[in-house]
Structure formats: C-alpha cells, structure tokens
Amino acid sequence: MNIDKLLDTKGLACPMPIVKTKKAINELTAGQVLEIHTTDKGAKNDLTAWAKSGGHKLLKYEEANDVLKFWIKKG
C-alpha cells in the first residue's frame, strides 16, 4: 500500500487524534492515503465513524504493542 502521509498522534487523548487527522487529510488530494498511529483506545470507534461520515474509506486497521494503526483513503 502506498502511504502519502504519516500522522503520529501517540500519547494524545481524545479529541486530538481526530482533530489532527482532519487537518492532515485536508492536506491530501482525493485518493491519497493517510496512515495514523495512536495510543488512544477510543480512536478505533472515533476514526472509523469519522472516515465514514466524511466520505473517506478506512482501508485497514491493526493494533500492535498498544499502538493502533489506521490507513484512510481520502474520498
């Protein structure tokens, strides 16, 4: 998978991962992929719902060593 931008929000609590994700995705063009790393456990539900409501596509999600990773394709 080609990643166009990596966003590290580890250590930040809600709502900052969503706020930073929104800012980062706005810097991309449609079809580009944003990879997000976070330690906020609420981000799984938050980012999934945010991507869907914003017209973006959650391509992949994984969790390893207390880090949640998301790949979102800009709609």
UniProtKB/TrEMBL annotation:
<comment type="similarity">
    <text>Belongs to the sulfur carrier protein TusA family.</text>
</comment>
<protein>
    <submittedName>
        <fullName>Sulfurtransferase TusA family protein</fullName>
    </submittedName>
</protein>
<dbReference type="Pfam" id="PF01206">
    <property type="entry name" value="TusA"/>
</dbReference>
<keyword id="KW-0808">Transferase</keyword>
<feature type="domain" description="UPF0033">
    <location>
        <begin position="7"/>
        <end position="31"/>
    </location>
</feature>
<dbReference type="InterPro" id="IPR036868">
    <property type="entry name" value="TusA-like_sf"/>
</dbReference>
<dbReference type="GO" id="GO:0016740">
    <property type="term" value="F:transferase activity"/>
</dbReference>
<dbReference type="InterPro" id="IPR001455">
    <property type="entry name" value="TusA-like"/>
</dbReference>
